[in-house]
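so my prof wants the structure for this chain in the tokens format not the other one, which i didnt know existed until like an hour ago. anyway here's the sequence
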Amino acid sequence: YVGDARVVDDRYTLSVDVPDGLRCGNVYYGLVIPTRDVYSWGSVSLQGTLTSSFAAGCDGAPGGAFTYPFSLVRL
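here's what i got, hopefully its the right format
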């Protein structure tokens, strides 16, 4: 996936549309649901969150979002 991160007030944000972002049931053969994934991280702390949003969930569940923390490391 390709995108450009933008920085505002020392915080980077990158949005990516992922066609198979949410996998339902069998991870290899189950239904896939597109997601909008937004990565956001501090330019100094390098700590961030990924928020993965979807319009509809698995098995007819309503849409929603999952949020995951992450850390970046300078090499």
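also thought this was worth mentioning. The first strand starts at residue 6 and ends at 8.
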